[in-house]
Amino acid sequence: MRRSSPVSRITSRGQTTVPREVRAALSSAPGDSLAWDIESNGRVVVRRIQPADVEYLRAVESTLSEWTSQEDEKAYGDL
To answer: Hey, which CATH number is domain 20-76, 3.40.50, 2.60.40, 3.40.1350, 2.10.260?
Structure first.
């Protein structure tokens, strides 16, 4: 069974309000980022993006330095 479909309008500046029901379904809050996935049939799916843990990403980045040589760039640069 399908739930109700909340409706909002797009302003002349391309802005819209995300309806309360949609924000609740996404467990979103002010400041959250949303991704709009466009499927091949024209359907659009919106999802909340989890904020990245910057400290974790920096820690992981420091372990990848072995792959930054000129030889690596030459071998894998076109991938």
So the answer is: 2.10.260
